[in-house]
């Protein structure tokens, strides 16, 4: 197994630790951050999420630079991304920090695009990620990080950066999904 795939696997292995940090009621204390409080365990989970999200860029860069792109990597990388983001969003709903309907739309888009990619793969077609999809990913990571940090440091000035980013992520998620289907509809139309 090459280095980029090991990095991707490390991202997958960080997900259970991330879930535990947010699910188990650790009594590590909390910080007052303006009008809100930030539990230390949520801060630790946010750091872990940011580190795990960063490995997505690292493994992709490394695979392309050293020509180490493999079928295993093509399978694991998007799977790791979807598992990490879905776990974070579902936990944010459970904690009351994100509206369920927004999370349902975001996760539904991911299932739909994955389904389209599976149909394409069955026809021997590889569908590349679009620049809009990359923007979707960045806004999702920023939104989730801000929500996990309970809007720190914007909580000091009462600016709802976390919710603005969540709705921006929703917009780019839906827009990129629609764009992806429009550009690749021929896959569905021409499939046997």
UniProtKB/TrEMBL annotation:
Main location: membrane
UniProt catalytic activity: a CDP-1,2-diacyl-sn-glycerol + sn-glycerol 3-phosphate = a 1,2-diacyl-sn-glycero-3-phospho-(1'-sn-glycero-3'-phosphate) + CMP + H(+)
Involved pathway(s): Lipid metabolism; Phospholipid metabolism; phosphatidylglycerol biosynthesis; phosphatidylglycerol from CDP-diacylglycerol: step 1/2
A Gene Ontology molecular function term of the record: CDP-diacylglycerol-glycerol-3-phosphate 3-phosphatidyltransferase activity
Top-level EC class as recorded in UniProt: transferase
Protein family per UniProt: Belongs to the CDP-alcohol phosphatidyltransferase class-I family.
Membrane topology per record: Multi-pass membrane protein
Localisation: Membrane
Keyword field contains Transferase: yes
EC number of the protein: 2.7.8.5
Pfam families with a match to the protein in the record: CDP-OH_P_transf
NCBIfam families: pgsA
Keywords: Lipid biosynthesis, Lipid metabolism, Membrane, Phospholipid biosynthesis, Phospholipid metabolism, Transferase, Transmembrane, Transmembrane helix
Protein's recorded name: CDP-diacylglycerol--glycerol-3-phosphate 3-phosphatidyltransferase
Protein task: This protein catalyzes the committed step to the synthesis of the acidic phospholipids.
InterPro entries tied to this protein: CDP-alcohol_PTase-I, CDP-OH_P_trans, CDP-OH_PTrfase_TM_dom, CDP_ALCOHOL_P_TRANSF_CS, Phosphatidylglycerol_P_synth
Signal peptide: none
């Amino acid at each position: 197994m090459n280095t980029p795939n090991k990095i991707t696997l490390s991202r997958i292995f960080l997900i259970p630790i991330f879930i535990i940090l947010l699910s188990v009621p650790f009594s590590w204390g909390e910080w007052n951050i303006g009008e809100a409080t930030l539990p230390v365990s949520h801060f630790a989970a946010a750091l872990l999420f940011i580190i795990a999200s960063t490995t997505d860029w690292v493994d992709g860069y490394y695979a392309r630079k050293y020509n180490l792109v493999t079928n295993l990597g093509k399978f694991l990388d998007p799977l790791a991304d979807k598992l990490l983001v879905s776990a974070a969003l579902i936990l944010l709903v459970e904690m009351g920090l994100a509206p369920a309907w927004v999370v349902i739309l975001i996760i539904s888009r991911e299932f739909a695009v994955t389904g389209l990619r599976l149909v394409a793969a069955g026809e021997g077609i590889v569908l590349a990620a679009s620049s809009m999809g990359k923007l979707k990913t960045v806004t999702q990571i920023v939104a989730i990080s801000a929500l996990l940090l309970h809007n720190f440091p914007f909580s000091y000035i009462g600016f709802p950066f976390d919710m603005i980013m969540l709705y921006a992520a929703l917009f780019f998620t839906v827009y990129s999904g629609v764009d992806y289907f429009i550009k690749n509809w021929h896959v569905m139309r021409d499939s046997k």
